[in-house]
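In this supplementary section we document a worked example of the pipeline. Step one takes a protein sequence of length 135 as its only input; no multiple sequence alignment statistics are reported here. Step two produces a three-dimensional model, which step three serialises into structure tokens for compact storage. The input and output of this example are shown verbatim.
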Amino acid sequence: MRALSLCLLALSLTGCSLLQKPYKPVSSSAPQPTQTVPPRTKPAVHPAMVKLYTDAADLVSKPFRDLGEVSGSDCQVNTQDSPANINTARKRMQTRASYMKANAVLLHQCDIVTGAAGCYRQAVCQGSALKISAQ
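The serialised model returned by step three reads:
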């Protein structure tokens, strides 16, 4: 019985080592295998430039179509995170407007909100996405 348990122990210890490849040192004269990077299947999508208007009087002489409301936000999750930034919220609003095929945004308001769900502080910007046509 003792011999059987010793054989099983020896077999279990050597069983895992038989599955591994032996170590081969790499010589410095042998060419190193190069990693090939697979080509990207899709090019990165960059949003189109969206002009920001802060005053409605600037749009008086321009023909435009209102595409709807658009907003952007930046969240500061806790006190250790970087503070919520109005410029980031404004840029996100412009990006969302570009996805609506807008080329301009009329800014209504930007605010810093405290106590928003999931955020310690949140910067929120709201506006209207516009499609300004050339005259």
